Every structure is written in C-alpha cells, then in structure tokens.
Amino acid sequence: MIRRLNEHIDYLPSDDKNGPCPKIVIFHGEEATLLLDVSTNKERLDEVLSFIKEKDYPSLRYVALTHFHDDHTSNLMYLDDDIEILCSKNTARYLSRKSTLVEKDEDFDLGNYTIRLILVPSLHAKGCLDVLADSYLFVGDSLYYRQSGSSYYYNHEIAYEMLRKYEGIDFKTSISAHDQNDESKEEVISFLKRLEQAPVTKIIP
Ligand SMILES: [Fe+2]
User: Fold this and answer.
1) Which of 122-126, 168-172, 194-198 has the highest mean pLDDT?
2) Cα separation of 202 and 205, whole Å?
3) Measured in angstroms, how far is the CA atom of residue 37 from the centroid of ligand 1?
4) How far, in Å, from the CA of 111 to the mean position of ligand 1?
C-alpha cells in the first residue's frame, strides 16, 4: 500500500519478510515523475507504475539510484529505455543499461518542484546517493554499516567524512530504505558520532 508523505512525495514501504525489498519513493513535480530506487520483485514496481497512472502524475522520466545493490536496482530491467537513470559513477559500473552520472551534488527540477541529489560517503557501499526533498532526507542504505555476523566493518575516515557531510545537509527527518521508523537529524548526528568514536572491530582495507 503506497503512502503519501506530502503533495509531492509518495512511497511504497519496504517489505523485508522474504528477503530485502527496500522502499520505492515517488517524487513528482508539474512536468515529470522520478523514482528513487526501483526495488526488487516486479509486482512492487507494477504497483508503483499503476499508482502514477491512477493519480495522473506526469510521466515517469527519471530513476535515481541510491547505490548499486541488487535489492535496490533489479527491477530496472522492466523499465523502458527512455527513462533516464541518474546515479553515481560507482553505481553505473554495475548497471547493464545507459545512465547519467551524478558527479557532484545537484538540484534537480521536476517542474516547479526541485529535489537535490547528494553524493554521500558511506560505510555501507561505495558511491551512495541521497535525495533531499523538502525537509526529508532519503538516505537509502547510506547510514547502515556493512555487517558480517556480529561484527561490523568499520573505517574511521569514512565515519568522520559521513559526520561532516550530514552535519552540513539541511534536513529535519531522515528516511532509510529498509526501516519503518524515521529519524531526526539530531538522532542521525548522534549515531554518526557514536560510530566515529566506536572501538574498531574490523577495518576495511
Ligand atoms: Fe544496500
């Protein structure tokens, strides 16, 4: 069931019962609709595409990808070739179709409604991209660390860079791809401070 966040943003919640199925976020302006991630499982994508038609939103012209992991990207194969894919250079390396590289933070106009694409350092994956829209920051998996069993992979330099980056972004609420609970900016910053100061368990070489 798709939920409405405000007049420009709707999203299909994550459903991780049978394996990871992250959110699909729908942004629309007066001229275009953009999806953030396409998730996995065709039925989920179809639900989003029908919703866009039902609501009579402008046509789907763009997909932005938070990072390259399959659970966020695998439904790309069902989308028409004329839909433009926006992603980081690292994410583009994993795609089997043409994409437009996001090489620096940039505003993106959907027709009287602008969102911001932001490249962020992340412990989770190389080349993560977040979207700032109104006061919401859609962080994909950027704030998760890489986990293996009970230990996590950790790099002080990346944690430091994450803290500096997120401190400088003007948002009130962060929305992750798999979580049901949103977090405030204060909660994100205090999490990153803890991470930056945590004892090293394993270091990414
Ligand atoms: Fe991921």
Assistant:
1) 168-172
2) 9
3) 11
4) 30
> Helix 185-197 crosses helix 156-167 at what angle (to 10 degrees)?
160
Q: Are 89 and 103 in contact (CB under 8 A)?
A: yes
- pLDDT, tens digit, 9 for 90 and up, residues 113-158: 999 999 999 988 999 999 999 999 999 999 987 666 666 667 778 8
- CATH top class, domain 3-203: alpha beta
Q: pTM of the predicted model, to two decimals? A: 0.94
Is the pLDDT reported for residue 52 higher than 60? yes
Q: Could you give the CA distance from residue 174 to residue 64 in angstroms, rounded to a whole number?
A: 17
Question: Is 204's pLDDT higher than 60?
Answer: no
Distance CA 81, CA 91 (A): 18
CA end-to-end span of the chain: 42
Dist. CA 23–CA 25, nearest whole Å: 6
Residue 170 has pLDDT above 80, yes or no: yes
Measured in Å, residue 76 CA sits from the centre of ligand 1 at: 16
Centre of ligand 1 to C-alpha 112, Å, is 31
Report CA(124)–ligand 1 centroid distance (Å).
7
Tell how far the Cα of 70 is from the centroid of ligand 1, in angstroms: 8
Ligand 1 mean position to 187 CA, how many Å? 21
